[in-house]
Structures are given as structure tokens and as C-alpha cells.
Amino acid sequence: MENTENKDNLKIILDDASNLSLNQIRRLLNKMTPSEIAHTLESSPPKQRTLLFSLLKTDEEGDVLFELGEEIQQDLVSNISNEELAEAVKELELDEVVDILQNLPEERMEKILSSMSMVDRQRIEMGLIFPDNTAGGLLNTDVISVRPNNTINEVIIYLRGQKELPENTDKIFVVNDLNEYLGELSISKIITSDPSLTVKEIMETDILPIDVEVDDKEVATIFERNDLISSPVIDQNKKLIGRITIDDVVDVIREDADQNLLGMAGVAEDTFAPPGRAAKSRVFWLSMNLITAFIAASTINLFQEVIDKIVYLAVLMPIVASMGGVAATQTLTIVIRGLTLEQINTSNIRWLFKRELAVSILNGVVLSLLVGIATYAWFQDMTIALLISFALVINLISSVIAGILVPLILRKLKQDPAIGGSVVVTTVTDVVGFLSFLGLATIYLV
Amino acid sequence: MENTENKDNLKIILDDASNLSLNQIRRLLNKMTPSEIAHTLESSPPKQRTLLFSLLKTDEEGDVLFELGEEIQQDLVSNISNEELAEAVKELELDEVVDILQNLPEERMEKILSSMSMVDRQRIEMGLIFPDNTAGGLLNTDVISVRPNNTINEVIIYLRGQKELPENTDKIFVVNDLNEYLGELSISKIITSDPSLTVKEIMETDILPIDVEVDDKEVATIFERNDLISSPVIDQNKKLIGRITIDDVVDVIREDADQNLLGMAGVAEDTFAPPGRAAKSRVFWLSMNLITAFIAASTINLFQEVIDKIVYLAVLMPIVASMGGVAATQTLTIVIRGLTLEQINTSNIRWLFKRELAVSILNGVVLSLLVGIATYAWFQDMTIALLISFALVINLISSVIAGILVPLILRKLKQDPAIGGSVVVTTVTDVVGFLSFLGLATIYLV
């Protein structure tokens, strides 16, 4: 089976690249699809990646570049000449060319555009107008449109006149003389309908076109809610300017999920980024954490006296802080997921807050009992056991407040609530953890 | 525009449900697609959710149930009668019915199946054979197949004989007399080809069918790599038994991403799960963290003596632990992402390990300098400043080892590397953090 076979090619390249001659590798690459080659590049350290890319034919480079993540794409693009790049992107769909060119420096983009034919150039310049993260950034202009008064027979003759239909063409669009969108006609409807009917009679008008300015995440939602394969895109004047296809929407969904996962840990880099770049991508949140760690340390510093008297407070205090951190990250994750899926809004946030409070109290009772018993077993001190239990409950409640408020505030400030959220919430639980435990100890033990 | 309008309906229901009469809500629900209704249910607390679901017509219930996450689906299913459920799922596609029925208790399933017609029953029983997380679990039997010797004209006449084609039919399949899969024929190819050609002459054979036993994540990869809308599925005897469509694959991709995000925090519940269930889903990893927190505390306990002498060691020690924890989570996240995307393998793990080491040393130098300066500014003690800097570098290096090894070991043990990984890695960095800082202090200060 081809799928298995290509997987083997991939494995051979990844595992044994150093044992293969360049010609052998070239032959393996020839058997793979652009998307498989892109995956191989993304799974390779930078040096090997550059080598593999240099073995591709120019006409393959464009397709492969489009399939790559932004960071790797830009690296590779910066290594090839303007002529080669212009040649490589020539055969791509509009959204694919735009995806590759939009990140280039102004000057370089000008040079490449000026080396293209007038038609190509105008087409691409139109695509470059739209921001990357909108429907416009996913736009293809390869639409087939017909008029409402055409008969199905005329449509079939017209379609048969095309050598082949653009990829993922599950429907064609109906427009008036001003190119304003009127409705759509699925290919399967065309094939199953009486050829003497007119387009107007069988076109569908209930799924509405996507506005070019809509956010790309919103586009993904519209596709998922309506199980779409493709959707027409219109400009402010209701004119049909292109379509979006499901393959590009799947990429948006993947990237969105990826950003949440990486963002929460404060990383933003591809898996095999070179060390310097990886270090740079992570040092910001590490430094933020350094500041917050010193804030937590200052909290402890307030209680030097009590620690000095009862040294095993220092032994136990990280337990309270650490439990709060885990609980806060759990709440934070639920809230970030709910915000991403657009499930959380003003009407249910109160319920969610109460639910999280109930969860923290339920788990607080169980865990503080366990912590109390373990502490008593260890230090044979009932007061300390009671204090740590009580401090834990306080910290679990603070974890709920932090876990819910921090992402909501970040979102209000138009920041991505996933990014670095966990550093902020664990600061709160560290501070409250140390404060409550050492504070209670000061009151009851000094 | 409908998309905006429905969004408004959704908002009205979510925000003002308590101010609307049941009839008003029912009218709003009527205007929404099943997927939008499902989203409204998923965004509602349990009580409101049950109410909204009870307002649906029976023939809508099936579609809505299928669109829901497993947990909410099961809750709602457990509240409706066998007869109603059998009626609700009657019109669904095979994979949708199976998705809903497979989680029912054996006895209940039997009762529902026995209330169905023989044909429906046999169809569903066939679907229930396949495990949920395989190609078989995504299978639909609504395939259209033709023979290689049919002419395109015959195919068109046959298709025209159907009232409408199944949803997401971008291609039909070619089989021999034994129903063995031979190739596929896209609808757009049918429409653009000379009607006198035979199927054999224009069918495509280069994309191979998916084996029914293939893992569902692998199915998603095949769809993404080849930009597929639908794909044929064959059994062990190469017989065509159905097809998988992109809408179900998008669900797999979403769920996969969701599991990674939630798993890392040790949560496994829907956003609006009732408090008892949410508490239960989270208490396991909180308890694990309790154990590991006590392990970290025991490490500190070894150094009571030195803390007793120099109390501000207790103030500073959480800084080293906390920085290691953040760094370890960053490495862990990169590794989990790489494993999920199948980018990491035996050939590049060494490179990755060396890269992470380099990152930890690079950032270690920067951060230990900052930590050293801050510590010196605070306590005016050069030895402590040097010790904490050095301990930080040690802990950042340990964070790399934990962040890489823990997910790899979990995967070797056939566990999901994302689940609870962060609790395990931060234990390592806590222990190493306390050990290195307090250990060095014991050596140099006592």
C-alpha cells in the first residue's frame, strides 16, 4: 500500500540519511507527496533540512514550502535566490503564494513580483492585501461561477470544457452580471438533476458566503458547524472574490491548537529550531518567572523569624504552594479551552466560577485530610498538621480565583489568555501558599 | 447574513435563557443547525442543558447528540427512553449511530437494536464491531461504487437516478465483482470527461484505500498529507466496506489537540461538567502531586541543619525549584508536541537532546547571572549569590533530562506522554533544585 510505503521512505530518510547517497535520497523524495516531504523537513535538524530541501526540484519547492510551518518556511526561503523563488511559486494557488511571500522583506517581495508576468503579479498583489489571519488570507481565486439563467445542461457543457476542475471543487457559485454572489450549486446536485432545469431553480441559498474580513478562527467555526468542504468569499460589496477550501481550514485548526499548547508553557518555536532561536523563544517567560519567583521569595522573607524558630515549616511550605499551582493550572486549562471553543461567556461564567469553587472545596477537603495525616505521621505535631490542612484549603480557593480571573483579564486586555498564563497563576498560588501557611504558623505557633 | 444571525440566536439563548418563554427558545433552536445547537448545549451548565435538549424534536436529537462530546452525549442519552433514542438515531449515518450507541450498557443497546428493523440492525451491528479509535469507528457505508467496464455515460445515468448523493461525496469507488477495491473516480472527473470513456480508463489508483484497522490519528495524518475529502476503507480481504469523510476527521484532529492540552494539566472533563465529576477528574493528579510534593519536602528535610543556621536559604530555595519547573515544562511541551506530530524518532532524538542541553546552558548563563545579581543585591552575600547561580544551572540541566526522558518513557510504557507529564517532571526539578542549592550550601557554608 502506498501509504505504508511512503511512511517507510520517510523513515529511511530520517533514520539513515547519513548512509544514503544524494541520489538515493533524491529518489526517495521523488516518491513522496509535498506534504510528506514537508513533514520530513519538519522532523529534521536544521543542517539536514537545508540539505534535503536543496535536493528538491524547483517545481516541487513551492508546494513543499507552503506545507511548512512559518518559521521553517522563512528559513528555507531566505536561502534561495529571487529567481528560483519566483519560479517555485508560479504554479501555486493564490493563498499558497501569498502564504509564502507575505513574510518576505518589502524589497525582496518587490523584486520577485516584478519578475512575474502582469497577470500573476496582479493576482498576487490582490491576495497580499488581506491580513494573514482573516478569511482573505485563506482565499483562492480558482472559483467557477455561473449565471442563474443558465440551464444545467449548459453548465455541464461548460464544465466539460474545462480540462479539470480546481482541487476540492465540491460546488460552483452563482453570480449576477455584477458578480454579486447569489447562491451555490453542488457538483453532485448538477450531476443528479434534470439537465433541462435552470441554475436558479436548483441553486442553494441557505448557507451564506463568508465575508473576506472575518477572522480565520471564525472561518474554522463556520466550516465545522456546517460541515463544509468549500465556501464562497465575498467583499464588502457582496461581490464574489474567491473561495476557501477545507484543507486550509484544517491547517488553521491545527495551528490554533498548537498555539494553545505551546503558549501555556511559554514556548513559540518549531520542534527542531536551532538552539539560539529556541533559547530566545523561551527566555522571556523564564525571566518573567524569575521575577515572580522573587516575589514569592519575598513573601517567605517576611517570615524568617518563625522559620528560624520552627525549621520544619521550611520543609512543609513548598507542599502548600505546589498543590495550589497544580490546581490553578487545572482551572486555567479548563478556562482557556472554554474560551478557545467559545463556550464561555458572560451568561455562564458565574456558574463556572461557582463550580470551580465547589471543586476546590471538595478536593480541598480530601487533600487537606491526606496532607494533615501525612504531616502528623511525619512530625507528630497536631497543630502543624491542622495549620497545613487549613492553608491548603485557602490556597486551593485562591487557585480558582487566579485560574479564572487571569485568562479573563488577559483576554480583556486583548492578549492571548493561553500565553504565559500558567506563570502568572502559579505566582498567585505560590504567594498565597507561603502567606497562608507561614502566616497561620506565626499566629498560632509564635 | 445567516452565520451572524445564528450567532445572535446562540447568544440570546445563552445570555437570556431565563427571560425567554419555552416557546421562544424552541423557535430560536429551530433556526439553528445541529452543530450550533450542540455548541449551545456544550456552553450550558447541566440543568439548562437538559432543559434545552428536552425542547428539541426527536428527529433533531440524533444529529445533535452526534455533534456533542462523549461525556455530555452520554449524560443526555441516559435521560431519554429507549424508544425515543431508537427513533432519534434512525436517520443518522452509520458512524454517527455507532458513535452514540457504542457507549451504552450492553443490555440497553440490545433493547434498542431489537426495536429496529432487520436492515438497520445488521448495518449498525456491523459498525459496532470496530473499535472507536480506528478507521472502522469513523466508517460510513453510504458508498457509491461502479465497475471498471461501465462507461462514464452509464455512471452519469446511474447517478442521475439517485435523488441526491450522500453528503461529502467528492468521489465514487470502483470495485470488481467480488467487491474488491480497484480505484476511485472523482465526481469532477466524471463531469469533465468524455462520456464515452470507460471507468477503467479514467479512474485513479494512486491514492490507496485505508485499512479498517488503522488508528484514527493515522487516518487524520493520511487525510492531511493528501488533502483528502473522503477515502475508501477496505477490510482484510481488500473488500470495500465503506468510506471516511473529512468532517469526521476534523473531529479527530480537534479531540486529539484537546486531549493534549487537558492531559498536561491532568484534567479530563467537559467545560461545564458538574462539580462532583470535575473534582473526581482532577483529584488523581492532585493526589499524585501530593505524593511528589512530600518527596520534595523530604529532600528539604535532609537539610534542616543548614536552614536552621542560615534561614534565608529557605527564602531562596523555591526560586531554584520554580525556575527548573518552568524550564522542564517548556522542554516537555516541545517533546509532547513533536511526538504528537510524529516528528520525533530515534534518528533525531539525540540532536533534540543536545539542542535542549544547549538551550538550558544558554538560558542558564543569562538567568543565573540575573539571579546572582538579584540575590547579592538582596542579601549582600557573594557566596550565596554564587551558590544559587550554580544550583540554577544544575537544575536547568536536570530539567532537560526530565523533560525529554519522562515523555519518552511514558510512551515506551504505552501511556499517553501528555497525561500528568508535568507533575512528574516538576517533581524532578523540585528535588534536584532543593538538593543542589541546599547541598551546595551545606558544603560551602557549614
Give a quick rundown of the structure:
With 446 residues, the first copy, chain A, is mostly helical.
Beta-strand fraction estimate of chain A: 5-15%
Uncertain residue ranges of chain A: none
**Based on helices, strands and strand pairing, what is the structural class of chain A?**
mainly alpha
Number of strands of chain A: 6
Largest interface: A-B, 135 and 135 residues
Q: Round the mean pLDDT of chain A to the nearest integer and report it.
A: 90
Q: Would you write up a description of this structure?
A:
2 copies of one chain form a homodimer. By secondary structure, the first copy, chain A, is mainly alpha-helical. The first copy, chain A, folds into 3 domains: 2-129, MgtE N-terminal domain-like (MgtE N-terminal fold, Alpha Horseshoe), CATH 1.25.60; 145-246, CBS-domain (Roll), CATH 3.10.580; 274-445, Orthogonal Bundle (Tetracycline Repressor, domain 2). Helices cover 66% and strands 6% of the residues of chain A. Chain A has 21 helices and 6 strands. The first copy, chain A, has helices at residues 2-16, 22-30, 34-42, 46-54, 58-67, 70-77, 82-89, 94-101, 106-114, 118-128, 152-161, 187-192, 199-202, 216-226, 246-265, 275-301, 304-309, 312-340, 349-379, 382-412, 421-445, and strands spanning 145-146, 171-175, 181-186, 210-211, 230-234, 240-245. In chain A, the strands form 2 sheets. The first copy, chain A, has a 3-stranded mixed beta sheet with strand order 1-2-3. A 3-stranded mixed beta sheet of chain A has the order 4-5-6. In chain A, helix 5 (58-67) packs across helix 7 (82-89), helix 18 (312-340) packs parallel to helix 20 and helix 20 (382-412) packs antiparallel against helix 21 (421-445). The interface between A and B is large, with 135 and 135 residues.
